[in-house]
């Protein structure tokens, strides 16, 4: 990592050494990833096969993409509970536009991306100019988006999509699944935004000290608007992949995904209060969650128990993370 | 009563205290003096168990003590009132004083009556009259301070540390605090008093201990030293004159900002003032007289019922500090940590925070190399002492932090800078450097509004002074009229005209 890396916590300059690596905010998520991978590898022969690894990444892609938007929001000190519901609404509407309204699929997808962004921007506007807490605003949006998805679809999945749509969910380029490629591209763009643009610095500044940022002339309200817009947009991208995977618009999809996305962000070392964290950490956090899901499945553990184990691991990770600093 | 001997403290490889002694007797007020970064706060943190010394001993009444944490120090009779209070804003004085050790009745419920009685008793002991039943955040800063002191006393503190208690008080509140301190001294409490105001040392303290760069410089009775000698002990050299010379007044200089009217709240006074290019306009007045509120209102960052501003002769309405920035007006707030800096950021990130226009690559991206070069230049200009541009600002001393804030604005091509308490909590040496930077800015045609509660600073730096009282300007003075008597008279008795 170059020492210009914008972690929110300024790094010390110097060469690449083990000590520096251990002080990087990525150290803990990486160690977690390695430990969990090794454990899973020991428990299951299949785990380290290329096929399984790509499979894990494919499964991770939806939550992974939601977690990108979530990272932006959390870095500013906010939270977005609406991502799962917005994803369901956008997916339902894309499917409905294609199947019921006969709109060409690419156009319907574009409309879905616009819808997601608009909902995100609405969240942002209410937080920034309405001066309402993000947790309340997005909780309300979550309920409304889910309700609208159910109304629009009548409560039933909308199926009958052209078969090529499945390319977004299960297609491959070479050996690599398409959703994985989409996810990695989104992460790359997010990295550039956070590390190489003034907007990215303002995101960290807002989470670090909103008053200071505002008084020094940063347009803090606009930054809030944009981070929620980004979260809406990434929710819509997740919806496209979801639609491709399920080959239908599912109004009930993505329940609880906002919590997985938050877990990925936090496991990735981003401070829940904002100001510190790296997008690469979120990717590691999302993959870590995915490996846990995959590994616990491969081990044949009761799904109810899996939730308990995942919860315990998140608590443990956060506890270790705090002691580490 | 209290004896610290040969205290050393290292953080990693760096030793910050090199064998410091401090001896405080019962019934005395003992001043702990030193520039920022001299080691006062570290020493006090060691005394109250928050930090552990690397070497040296702490004795209370002759017995050696080790404090593993703050609670053990409290149990040993040490009370500390930090610069930033540790009170819960929505609880009242009684609830705050007995927080986490509430008195309980027979059913385990709160015994408010007993707590209130005890609180009242301590307040009487302090000879202060603080409302006990209203939320702390509705009390004045001074009253909150008394609650902190009362809290320490309710814990049977016999050694009381006051860390810069007067920094945010008005002169009459300071007087009241001193009265309380004298009363405590009479009752045999040992008080360690930290302050940057030397005149206060002479007024209230019995003995002094001076630290410099982590070294123990000396201890003596206040009567043995004078002002110059104290400063010399603190900085190791004599500072003859802190203030750069003032230029000849130029009434014909064009106006940078003209505020035709500003009213903070309905029924309050309406103020007007003008800022000339090349001048430093002082805003004097007591804390709470509306100085900061007026500049915030001007920038659209605070409430106002009326506000009419002209910038370079053109009527302008600001919706916030970002628009002030666009017009070349920058604000350096009074509280650097809460309002000025992103403390988790590096110097570089703090300096460039609001000036990415200067180093863009392909419109959207930051030109990292240029950013680094510009930051180095800006740091050099204001002489920030730090390991480098990537050092975190929360590792810097107060003076260097303020220089980082100044560097941020000098990195722009600004017309007007508003300094709110530019040297609060900053040591003597760094003060002089900041004054010089301010003058250098006005000599190049910039204009400065300087809000300050330190009269010597207002008098030494300002070309003209607006004196505030009760939310508005009551007088504007210049030339020989800039003296402490005139300013204090206006600030305490000036006529306020209320306008509906």
From TrEMBL, chain A:
Ranges annotated as spanning the membrane: 26-44, 56-75, 81-100, 107-128, 134-152, 173-194, 225-247, 259-292, 304-321
Keyword vocabulary terms for this entry: Cell inner membrane, Cell membrane, Membrane, Transmembrane, Transmembrane helix, Transport
GO molecular function per UniProt: transmembrane transporter activity
InterPro entries named in the record: ABC_transp_permease (IPR001851)
Membrane topology: Multi-pass membrane protein
The protein's name: Ribose ABC transporter permease
Compartment list: Cell membrane
Pfam families, per database record: BPD_transp_2 (PF02653)
Top-rank taxon, per record: Bacteria
GO cellular component: plasma membrane
UniProtKB/TrEMBL annotation, chain B:
Keywords: ATP-binding, Cell membrane, Membrane, Nucleotide-binding, Repeat, Sugar transport, Translocase, Transport
GO cellular component terms, semicolon-separated: plasma membrane
Keyword Transport among UniProt keywords: yes
Nucleotide-binding as UniProt keyword: yes
Domain of life: Bacteria
CDD domains, A to Z: ABC_Carb_Monos_I, ABC_Carb_Monos_II
Subcellular localization(s) per the UniProt record: Cell membrane
PROSITE patterns hit by this protein: ABC_TRANSPORTER_1 (PS00211), ABC_TRANSPORTER_2 (PS50893)
GO MF term list: ATP binding; ATP hydrolysis activity
The ABC transporter domain, residue ranges: 2-238, 257-495
Membrane-protein topology: Peripheral membrane protein
Pfam family, one: ABC_tran
Protein name: Sugar ABC transporter ATP-binding protein
Organism: Paracoccus siganidrum
């Amino acid at each position: 990592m170059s020492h210009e890396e914008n972690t929110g916590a300024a790094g010390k300059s110097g060469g690449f050494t083990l000590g520096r690596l251990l002080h990087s905010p990525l150290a803990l998520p990486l160690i977690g990833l390695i430990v969990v991978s090794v454990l899973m590898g020991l428990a299951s022969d299949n785990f380290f096969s290329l096929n399984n690894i790509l499979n894990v990444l494919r499964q991770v892609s939806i939550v992974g993409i939601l977690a990108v938007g979530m990272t932006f929001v959390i870095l500013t000190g906010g939270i977005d509970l609406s991502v799962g519901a917005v994803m369901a609404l956008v997916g339902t509407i894309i499917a409905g536009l294609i199947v019921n309204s006969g709109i060409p699929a690419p156009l319907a997808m574009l409309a879905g991306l616009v819808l997601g962004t608009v909902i995100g921007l609405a969240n942002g506007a209410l937080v920034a100019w309405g001066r309402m807490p993000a947790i309340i605003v997005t909780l309300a949006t979550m309920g409304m988006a889910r309700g609208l998805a159910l109304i629009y679809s009548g409560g039933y999945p909308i199926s009958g999509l052209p078969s090529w749509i499945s390319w977004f969910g299960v297609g491959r380029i070479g050996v690599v699944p398409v959703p994985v490629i989409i996810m990695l591209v989104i992460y790359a763009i997010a990295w550039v935004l956070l590390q190489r643009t003034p907007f990215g610095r303002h995101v960290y500044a807002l989470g670090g000290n909103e008053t200071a940022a505002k008084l020094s002339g940063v347009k803090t309200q606009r930054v809030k608007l944009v981070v929620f817009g980004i979260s809406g947009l990434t929710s819509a991208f997740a919806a496209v992949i979801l639609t491709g995977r399920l080959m239908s618009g599912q109004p009930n999809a993505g329940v609880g995904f906002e919590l997985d996305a938050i877990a990925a962000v936090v496991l990735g070392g981003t401070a829940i209060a904002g100001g510190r964290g790296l997008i690469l950490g979120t990717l590691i956090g999302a993959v870590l969650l995915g490996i846990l899901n995959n590994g616990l499945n491969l081990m044949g553990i009761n799904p109810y128990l899996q939730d308990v184990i995942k919860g315990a691991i998140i608590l443990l990770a956060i506890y270790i993370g705090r002691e580490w600093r | 009563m209290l004896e610290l001997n040969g205290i050393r403290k290292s953080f990693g490889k760096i030793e910050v205290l090199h064998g410091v002694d401090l001896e405080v007797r019962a019934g005395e007020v003992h001043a702990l003096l030193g520039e920022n970064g001299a080691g006062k706060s570290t020493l006090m943190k060691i005394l109250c168990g928050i930090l552990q010394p690397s070497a040296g001993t702490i004795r209370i009444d002759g017995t050696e003590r080790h404090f593993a944490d703050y609670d053990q120090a409290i149990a040993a009779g040490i009370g500390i009132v930090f610069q930033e209070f540790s009170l819960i804003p929505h609880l009242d004085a009684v609830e705050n004083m007995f927080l986490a050790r509430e008195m309980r009745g027979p059913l385990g419920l709160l015994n408010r009556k007993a707590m209130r009685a005890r609180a009242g008793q301590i307040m009487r002991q302090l000879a202060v009259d603080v409302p006990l039943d209203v939320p702390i955040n509705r009390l004045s800063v001074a009253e909150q301070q008394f609650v902190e002191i009362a809290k320490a006393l309710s814990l049977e503190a016999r050694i009381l540390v006051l860390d810069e208690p007067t920094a945010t008080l008005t002169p009459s509140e300071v007087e009241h605090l001193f009265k309380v301190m004298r009363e405590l001294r009479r009752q045999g409490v040992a008080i360690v008093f930290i302050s940057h105001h030397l005149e206060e040392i002479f007024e209230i303290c019995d003995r002094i201990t001076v630290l410099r760069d982590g070294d123990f410089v000396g201890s003596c009775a206040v009567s043995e030293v004078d002002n110059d000698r104290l400063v010399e002990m603190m900085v190791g050299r004599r500072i003859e004159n802190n203030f750069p010379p003032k230029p000849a007044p130029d009434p014909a200089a064009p106006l940078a900002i003209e505020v035709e009217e500003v009213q903070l709240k309905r029924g309050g006074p309406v103020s007007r003032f003008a800022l000339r290019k090349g001048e430093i306009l002082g805003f004097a007045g007591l804390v709470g007289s509306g100085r900061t509120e007026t500049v915030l209102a001007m920038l659209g960052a605070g409430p106002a019922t009326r506000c009419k501003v002209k910038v370079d002769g053109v009527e302008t309405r600001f919706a916030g500090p970002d628009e002030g920035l666009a017009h070349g007006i920058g604000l350096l707030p009074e509280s650097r940590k809460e309002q000025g800096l992103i403390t988790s950021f590096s110097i570089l990130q703090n300096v460039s925070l609001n000036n990415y226009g200067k180093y863009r690559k392909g419109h959207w991206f930051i030109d990292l190399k240029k950013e680094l070069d510009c930051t180095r230049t800006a740091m050099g200009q204001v002489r920030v002492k730090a390991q480098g541009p990537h050092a975190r600002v929360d590792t810097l001393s107060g003076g260097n932090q303020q220089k980082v804030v100044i560097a941020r604005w000098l990195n722009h091509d600004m017309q007007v800078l508003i300094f709110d308490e530019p040297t609060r909590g900053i040591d003597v040496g760094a003060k002089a450097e900041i004054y010089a930077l301010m003058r250098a800015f006005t000599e190049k045609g910039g204009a400065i509004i300087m809000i300050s509660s330190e009269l010597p600073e207002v008098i030494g730096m300002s070309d003209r002074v607006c004196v505030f009282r009760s939310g508005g300007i009551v007088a504007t003075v210049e030339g020989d009229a800039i003296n402490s008597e005139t300013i204090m008279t206006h600030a305490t008795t000036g006529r306020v005209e209320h306008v509906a």
